Amino acid sequence: MSRVFNFCSGPAALPLEVLQEAQATLPDYQGSGMSLMECSHRGKEYMAVQAEAIANIRELLQLPEDYAVLLLQGGASAQFAMIPLNLLTPGSVADYTRSGTWAIKAIKEAKVVGKVHIAADCGDEIPTRVPRLDELKLTPGAAYVHITSNETISGAQWKSFPKTEAPLVADMSSDILSRPLDVTQFGLIYAGAQKNLGPSGVTLVIIRKDLAERVPDTVPIFFRYKTHLAEDMYNTPPCFSIYILMLVTRWMKKMGLANLHKQNVAKAARLYAAIDNSSGFYKGTAIPSCRSDMNITFRLPSEDLETQFGKEASAAGLKQLPGHRSVGGLRASIYNAFPPEGVDALLAFMQEFQRKNG
Ligand SMILES: Cc1ncc(COP(=O)(O)O)c(C=O)c1O
């Protein structure tokens, strides 16, 4: 078996031991004679998996009782719609921070539902960044304040969060559980699983339970949070994705969130140091105070060199380094499960590439 270093922004690298465990249980899950994929979602095997997945998340984030954990479908994109459908009630306004591609998508969807106020706008700036806390212009009485905690494409990340009167809602798709978090600062957190939590197909939503009660009854039942908060499972969940998420969160508990955070900061710092010490050959695209620990974005002196870098890196087993198709450049996505040895390999490759082409 030969595993590459996978820098994909999502679906992203998973811990090898999780893949091996899933492989071992694939044809016969715990003596059931069936794969978990074939088990009823209301049977004891799957019910135990889902309960452990939720318990692991609760433990990792030390969630208080008044927060619920939902495992939904539709990706983070479905949450762009579900959040305003549930919380942006008629006559109210939601504050959104416009920090890049993902925030812009969230804003576009919210505008379909109701009134949106842009509380800060740095979405088109280069170098990229997220808003400073002191530039937020919040609406008194807003329904909620929406932020994108890590802009996966631009590589800019909130390092601390605003204290808001209105419930704070965060898209944490690309940095959920990469660092310790005080969830009580937030009304709602959501994240597609396919970066830090597991495979695609499941979306984590953490919601303060009282917020689920706001929903107008014009919203279809399926799209109400309170439908999914109810004890009984409303419909068939993405069982196998949740199984892998359960294994990933079990792995996270073993590693410890504080240790993973320390490792994440160290991995990112080494790459940023290499960029900063390259005499301008490599240029970071986010301003230093907002540099993401998850998505390290950088440019080379020309687009031709960037293409060459991506091709040669791929041939050397360093996969998926080209940046998002909308912005170009390069991007190393190094979520929790991305091993420090992969960063070593990229650093060596960068040094050699500069020596040959600088
Ligand atoms: C920050 C952020 N939000 C939202 C999305 C969209 O997620 P999904 O594809 O799960 O809808 C992504 C996907 O990369 C993302 O990085």
Shape, per Cα inertia axes: globular
Look at the structure and give the CATH class of the largest domain.
Alpha Beta
Oligomer: single chain
Ligand inventory reads:
pyridoxal-5'-phosphate
**Structural class of the secondary elements?**
alpha/beta
Give the uncertain stretches in residue-range form: none
Rg calculated over all Cα atoms: 21 Å
Within CATH, the superfamily of the largest domain carries the name Type I PLP-dependent aspartate aminotransferase-like (Major domain)
What fold name goes in the CATH topology slot of the largest domain?
Aspartate Aminotransferase, domain 2
Terminal Cα span: 35 Å
Write structural notes for this entry:
Helix content is about 35%, strand content about 15%. β3, α4 and β4 form a beta-alpha-beta unit. The chain has two domains: about 15-255, Type I PLP-dependent aspartate aminotransferase-like (Major domain) (Aspartate Aminotransferase, domain 2), CATH 3.40.640; about 255-355, Alpha-Beta Complex (Aspartate Aminotransferase, domain 1). With about 350 residues, it is an alpha/beta fold. The structure holds pyridoxal-5'-phosphate. Pyridoxal-5'-phosphate binds near residues 173 and 174. Pyridoxal-5'-phosphate binds near residues 10, 75, 102, 171 and 173.
Architecture blueprint of SSEs:
Blueprint: E1 5-6, H1 16-25, H2 44-61, E2 67-72, H3 75-87, E3 93-98, H4 101-113, E4 115-121, E5 144-148, E6 150-151, E7 156-157, E8 168-171, E9 188-192, E10 203-208, H5 225-229, H6 239-255, H7 257-276, E11 283-284, E12 295-299, H8 303-315, E13 318-319, E14 330-333, H9 340-357
Parallel strand pairs: 1-13, 3-4, 3-5, 5-8, 8-9
Antiparallel strand pairs: 2-10, 6-7, 9-10, 11-12, 12-14
Helix pairs in contact: 1-6, 2-6, 3-4, 7-9
The protein binds pyridoxal-5'-phosphate (PLP).
Pyridoxal-5'-phosphate (PLP) binds at residues 10, 75-77, 102, 148, 152, 171, 173-174, 192.
